[in-house]
Amino acid sequence: MRAQIDSGRCHGHGRCYDLAPDLFGDDEEGYGTVLGDGVVPPGKEHDARLAASNCPERAIDLLEGE
Description:
- The chain has helices spanning about 15-20, 45-55; strands at about 1-5, 25, 30-35, 60-65.
- The chain has two helices and four strands.
- The chain is globular, with a radius of gyration of 10 Å.
- A hairpin with a 5-residue loop joins β2 (about 25) and β3 (about 30-35).
- It has a single domain, classed as Alpha-Beta Plaits, CATH 3.30.70.
């Protein structure tokens, strides 16, 4: 699974990095960013899905099978 954030949809609420700080961070303006290369490590899939489902703008895309 790979995570990505659509910067055009992100409004900087911060739920992604509050719920999954190992996977998401924030940039200098407070908008969400994906940490590393976006590959969700084994055992962190639940955290990625939780962050995605709690994003008000649905800015997080989770790509299965990657």
